[in-house]
Amino acid sequence: MKNTPLLAFNDKGIYCAQADVYLDPWRPVDKAIISHGHADHSRWGHKKYITHHSNIPIIKHRLGEINVSGKDWNETFSINNVKFSFHPAGHIIGSAQIRVEYKGEVWVFTGDYKTEDDGVAKPYEPVKCHTFITECTFGLPAFKWQPQEEVFAEINNWWLQNQAEGRTSVIFGYSLGKAQRLLKYLDTSIGKIYTHGAIENMTEVLRPQLEMPETTRITRDVKKDEIKGNIVVAPPSAHGTPWIKKMVPYVTASASGWMTFRGARRRRAIDRGFVLSDHCDWQGLLSSIKETGAEKVICTHGYTDIFSKYLREIGYDARTEQTQYEEENAEQTSKTEDE
User: Fold this and answer.
1) Confidence of residue 268 (pLDDT cuts 50, 70, 90)
2) What local confidence, expressed as pLDDT, does residue 2 receive?
3) Do you find a cis peptide bond into 249, omega within 30 degrees of 0?
4) With contact defined as beta carbons under 8 Å apart, do 174 and 236 qualify?
5) What would you give as a GO molecular function for this chain, any one (predicted)?
């Protein structure tokens, strides 16, 4: 065991041999420690799930009746003398970094994370470690986020303008995470918030944990005239479906880090793009890595080659590993809807 790394990547996921447990595995395993509720990180079929308490309602909603136990923030639990604990990742509600310690060696797996406090997820906290396993979804210098207050001012002004022109505003965001962030900061003094069923279902699961404004699910009973001039929050997969015809006349927008690039908006046939991401930008990634004090960095998904090359240039022992977490490029929205 001496030369075996504390965490290794195999065809099922990130494996801790000493504890015989996997972190965010993508194939069915006996015991899985789960960072957060998005589909590429919490998959169906494991015999036992361990996650943060606030993530349990989410994964039960998505996966059904599973064998799951919850832990608190910073609560240490041991499996065969390996110590594990969850620390806030700031990505979405219930998202955690997973700290792994054995015989004084510490690794941290981020899952997905962001450093900006969005007022919804528990804010990201840096965790000291020797090896840091990081995502780099937006690991290019071109990605630089505005403060979210500025972005939401733009979104609410866009809604107000559309309303003045007699149009309905339809904004697309992933049903878990992005949608709740949108709902929290939409200005209800402008009008009412309507939701697609997928958004409403997940929001109902999260309402006990979050302060959310009143929303109205769009059903067959909701008349087109009721919706006009208001705002509709929908998943990206709803774009271009018969469902959206009920909003005519409407204007569309997408809230995503990919809206940095005009080409992404054009390919998706979106009228307006708002750059709002639940992941770190370039500087957020670099500052997070520095704060960990880690010497070794493993890049798992996103711009892995470019980002790890830059890390090596500035002195880190950095490499990449293949995973089945979605890289979320601009063409994958309907598949992952996690941005």
Assistant:
1) confident
2) 54
3) yes
4) yes
5) RNA endonuclease activity
Tokens of residue 55, six digits: 């993530």
Tokens at residue 89, please?
A: 């990742």
Q: How far is CA 151 from CA 68, 114, 145, 254, in A?
A: 37, 16, 9, 12
Indicate the pTM of the whole model. 0.94
Domain presence at residue 2: no
Q: Mark whether 20 and 95 lie in a shared domain.
A: yes
Residues 177 and 132 placed together within one structural domain of the fold: no
Q: What is the CATH number of the domain that holds 39?
A: 3.60.15.10
The neighbouring-strand residues paired with 70 are: 51
Is position 1 within any domain? no
245/336 Cα distance (integer angstroms): 24
Residue 136 confidence class, pLDDT cut points 50, 70, 90 = very high
Q: What is the residue type of 119?
A: G
